[in-house]
Amino acid sequence: MKSAACRERQLVYRRMGVMLVFIMLASVLLGPGSTARAAGKTITSMEYFSSADGPVISKSGVGKASFGFVMPKFNGGSASWSEVSGDLGVNVKVGSQWVDIDQAEGFTYNQNWGHWTDAGFHGYWFTLSTTTDVQLYSKANGIKLDYRLVFQNINETTITAMSPTQGPDIIASSTGGAGFTYPTFNNNPSVTYEAVAQDLKVYVKPVQSNTWIDIDNNAASGWIYDQNFGQFTEGGGGYWFNVTESIHVKLQSKTSAANIIYTITFNEPVRNSFVVTAYEGTTFTADESGSTGIPLPKIDGSAPIAKELQHFVYQININGQWVDLSNSGQSKFTYSGNGYNPISDANQWGYWADHIYGLWFRPIQENMQIRIGYPLNGQPGGNVGSNYVNYTLIGNPDAPRPDGSDQEDISIGTPNNPAIEGMNLIWQDEFSGSALDTSKWNIETGYYLNDDPGTWGWGNAEMQHYTTSPQNIFVQDGKLNIRATHSNQSFPQDPNRFAKYASGKVNTKDKLSLKYGRVDFRAKLPTGDGVWPALWMLPQDSVYGTWAASGEIDVMEARGRLPGTTSGTIHFGGQWPANQYAGGEYHFPAGQTIANDYHVYSVVWEPDNIKWYVDGKFFYKVTNQQWSSAAAPNNPNAPFDEPFYLIMNLAIGGNFDGGRIPDASDIPATMQVDYVRVYKQQ
């Protein structure tokens, strides 16, 4: 349940190999000896992934430079990095001797070297100030592969003149992607970007605006490095942008009047009939990893743009019936907004963007039928009719699927007995009284975050305000009831805006917080369009910054219209809008739903991983390989290494399920909580 703006924004999956060095510095970092559920294979051979990935890689910089390469091909390409990572070591040459990098003076993991992962690829990165020899080796078989990382130091200078090497007029692709190589500095092609980087500023403004925006470390402007702008290294390097409108970009010297203004033009297509046709073919075959993808169809003959993605309808044929791909309980596919999750054994899908948009799927082990449609009136939710393109995905039965066998189920207590073998119960509320125990719980009220009119609906476009009314929060028959009712309430922040529902929200801030442990909620949840019950956690003190840099743990969230499914999620990364998330879904056995009975929703939180369960059955895990905090890039456990407090609430509407509005008959809706129990391992 996110606590600041739109949480279910679909993050576009980017395939931009030209940004390898910059991606590797921003991507999720893996622990020095970590494995991605290694299958225990040993290395019998290694060869360079490509000519750009060894044996010699040259970089230049002022005092230091960033190097990176894709992992080699293992065992002739038959083994993945995750399968052999337990057998893979790294040496560096010190004098004339090879030394394990973890023992070599001057090398600190996640500071000047480490792993990177992106778009299904893995590799190493290094920040070096001298030429260095690196060796990958098999611990079991002695197989070795050598790299020489050649560093050339550059003398720093200032900018006296700039002239474009591309542009200055540039046309963006349909995805908004555009870029240009660095200009010639000081009328001298030998003056590199690294030599003048400290003297260069980048400004952006829409073509209709008169105000230049400094986009350096200015996420509040909406310009976020490695999300909608960044740099690439190939061909001498340059800048790339993802735009949704035409913009000007200005490169400006800090010490002189020298500058260049580029114009990036985004041509928005004109639509008439909204008829979809295949972009290139309708049959796609999974590769050795089980990956494949579909370019999104053309609309009226041209590729779709970003704002049209939410209008598409994606369906999969299951036993002769077309099922929405997003309905994971039926489609058996999980949406992975941050790219493929290599430790989840689920079928996964998401968006990719190159010069066009598309969908990726992995692992595809059997043939399947997909269809993609578009509303005939061009409006989300409109009638699609027969306006579909049908696709066939050819599966690879030998494609690997991550091994989930190490993720066992857990024991749970009974309604009358919280005892669990091996666990100490450190806090509980069984709701056995006649009213909410305010020594344990706070009641939150309102409709705005920090009284900011722009954050109505808690920053998520939710439609409820929270109250202390016994109509919305009450204890009865040993259960806490959080009930959403019809309302029509306005607030001083914006008297013309009305919250159409009232509901309840309670938390344990300043009364209970925990760092690591296990939390069990036993609850029965309501159903209905736009009904959004949540059991979750936020940091007691946001030591790494505002949401989501300090993290969030969602123990359980449910969409009332999909009563057969719940989810567990973490939020992390940078401060909004530079936030990221990772999550998984649980699908109830046939005949069970969130509403048919009480179910126990559990999270087990350890220093380097978090696991989710329903009724003791494991369904999702994340590790510190997958999370990070922008405020602590060298701390692999941040932000989930600080105390968090508990929250329970029932929201209505909002972005979590696309702004759906309940039917009148769905309200009142009530979430009933039987108990909350917090444990620590003995």
Question: How would you sum up this structure, described in words?
Answer:
It is a single chain. The longest helix is centred in the N-terminal third of the chain and has 7 residues, at 20-26. It contains four helices and 48 strands. It starts with 19 loop residues before the first helix and ends with a strand. By secondary structure, the protein is mostly beta strands. Mean pLDDT is 89; it is low at 1-39. It folds into four domains: 17-153, Sandwich (Immunoglobulin-like); 162-265, Immunoglobulin-like, CATH 2.60.40; 276-394, Immunoglobulin-like, CATH 2.60.40; 424-681, Jelly Rolls (Sandwich), CATH 2.60.120.200. Strands 32, 34, 35, 36, 37, 39, 44, 45, 46 and 48 form a ten-stranded mixed sheet that branches. A seven-stranded antiparallel sheet has the order 33-38-47-40-41-42-43, with no helix packed on it. Strands 2-10-9-5-6 form a five-stranded mixed sheet, with no helix packed on it.
Total strand count, please?
48
Estimate the global geometry from the Cα principal axes. Answer: globular
Helix content: under 10%
How many strands, which pairing sense, and closed or not: the largest β-sheet? 10 strands, mixed
Mean pLDDT: 89
Structural class: mainly beta
CATH class of the largest domain: Mainly Beta
According to CATH, the fold-level topology of the largest domain is: Jelly Rolls
Shape-level CATH architecture of the largest domain: Sandwich
Contiguous runs where pLDDT drops below 50 for at least 5 residues:
1-39
How many distinct helices?
A: 4
Backbone CA Rg: 27 Å
